[in-house]
Amino acid sequence: MHITPLNHEFVGEVSAIDISVPLTPAQVAEIEAGMDRFAVLVFPDQPLTDDEQCTYSRNFGELEATLIGQMSKPSERRLGPVEIGDISNLDASGKLRDRDDNRRMYALGNRLWHSDASFRTTGAGYSLLSARVVPGHGGDTGFADMRAAYDALDETTKTEIEDLITEHSIAFSRGVLGFDNYGEGNADKVRPVRHRLVRTHPVTGRKSLYLSAHIGAIVGWPVPEARAFIRDLTEHATQPQFTYAHRWRVNDLVMWDNRTTMHRATRFRDLSEVRDLHRTSIKGTGMTAEQVHSMVAG
């Protein structure tokens, strides 16, 4: 297996490995070491079934059920298992969704810079996205290195943010776009959870920002001031020197660490084209909301 750095220090392209077959412990360890170094790994030419993608993903932890899958009826899920995220513009029957389709409106939140599942108590660890059908133009995915963005802050700002606690909810990010239709019985799934704004990587010890469009508040701050400050930090963290845009090719698999990156989808104009990517995510193992609350209270 070989990892070639791309045009940014936090992205590597992996070759000479077939991830559709069972991996050895040494191969898994080499990939994890690559993730610790780069944070984003691109695996080109990896045609995968959903079962193969799930099997590969489980090398790195327990799969996480998607929120939209949990909030949908089985008949509304095109891909079936709730562990497979349907990142597409297709409905359950395989037809293109209407422009005003509720699921399409919900998915537009993916165009905002975010960290997967930060609206859960521990957030996601790795996410893995497999390209099955891609449009002719647009629909790229941007990534931002939260480690480099933290490093570039001045020391006064680093001191100010060191112990800040933020509140995350899917309702905050979707609310920015005017979306609020989550269906009945889902109030608990959009209730805010708390996370540290500055996190330390458990292996490398490197600090990074934990930013996301899901942030709607900072504990102890007036909401308008908190949201303005988070916007300032996000603008800083998504400057060109900290970002990489991945132009998808069919059978690409891209794997990233949500603890140290943000990402977002970009728009494609031709709504008659299909964009179909399948995502798996690994459950996070970080500090829970309850632990953060106890830390703040103490």
Account of the protein in words:
By secondary structure, the protein is of the alpha+beta class. The chain has helices spanning 25-38, 50-57, 67-70, 102-107, 146-151, 155-161, 170-176, 223-237, 289-297; strands at residues 2-5, 11-15, 40-43, 85-88, 124-133, 141-145, 165-168, 193-196, 198-200, 207-209, 215-218, 243-246, 253-257, 261-265, 276-283. It has a single domain, classed as Double-stranded beta-helix (4-Layer Sandwich). The strands form four sheets. The protein has a seven-stranded mixed beta sheet, with helices on one face. The N and C termini lie far apart (47 Å). The mean pLDDT is 92.
Give the beta-strand count. Answer: 15
In whole angstroms, how far apart are the ends?
47 Å
What is the number of helices?
Answer: 9
In the sheet with the most strands, the strands line up as 1-2-3-13-5-15-4
The CATH superfamily is known as Clavaminate synthase-like
Helix content: 25-40%
Mean pLDDT across residues: 92
Top-tier CATH class: Alpha Beta
Please state the CA-atom Rg, rounded to the nearest Å.
19 Å
Largest sheet: 7 strands, mixed
- Overall structural domain count: 1
User: What percentage of amino acids are in beta strands?
Assistant: 15-25%
Low-confidence spans: none
